[in-house]
Amino acid sequence: GATWKDLRGNLPFGLVVHLIEDQGRVLAAVLRGQRLQVLSAAVGDAQWQPLFSTELNVSRFWDAVNVRPALYLDGPRIVASVPGQQMAVFDKTSAQLSLRAMPGSIQYFSVGKDGVYRCRCGSMKVDPYESRDQGRTWQAADTSRYFMLPVFRDAKFAVRLQSAFAGPTRMASTRNGGATWTEGTPEVPHDLAWFTYSRDAQSIWGT
Q: How many secondary structure helices (H) and strands (E) does the chain include?
């Protein structure tokens, strides 16, 4: 961060909600009103290539409002959550886009390094779900609704926030792909919402 370069270039005017790196390219998820557009540019370049776009369909009665799309990579696929109750899967090889139904209104969504798609979905009652076939089908997850989605560093190691109802929030970790979890002793701030790993994957950052 010592120096910065303007990479706006031909990026369409809108709200950039997510950036990820993909083999020397940057993928940007941009909101323009109720339309989600995903674009790609080489790292350090300002010329953005549109990949796909789709409309958000958020009901103010049934869906959680102010939930922003999230962008992930899954092998040859670019995966994006599309609030309120859809997800988009874009195949980079064939350039084909597939929209798939979520099991309810999206609250949180993630694609793990273990290949599992996860969400906390619902309107009146929010529950955790998992998909092991790229979002074609969803099953109720065998975990408490009070646990946040795990964030995987690789196929085995992950961290998550967990708490009992009205109880303290703590960080837990797994080293066996989620088969067992070890809860940390110190409490963490209640407003800590997400984890990410440093570039060398040796440190965990909370936001």
A: 0, 18
For residue 204, the SS3 value is strand
Contact (Cβ atoms closer than 8 angstroms) between residue 39 and residue 11: yes
Question: What is the CA angle 144-146-149, rounded to 5?
Answer: 80
Closest-CA residue to 61 (of 14, 11, 105)? 105
- Length in residues, the chain: 207
* 8 Å CB contact between 72 and 82: no
* Cα radius of gyration (the chain): 18
98's CB contacts (< 8 A; 6+ apart) are 88, 89, 90, 91
- pLDDT tens by residue, 147-197: 777 888 888 888 888 776 666 778 888 898 888 888 876 777 666 666 778
Evaluate the omega torsion of the peptide bond into residue 84 and state whether it is cis, within 30 degrees of 0: yes
User: How many Cα atoms sit within 13 Å of 191 on the Cβ side?
Assistant: 0
Residue with tokens 């929010």: 126
Amino acid at 141: A
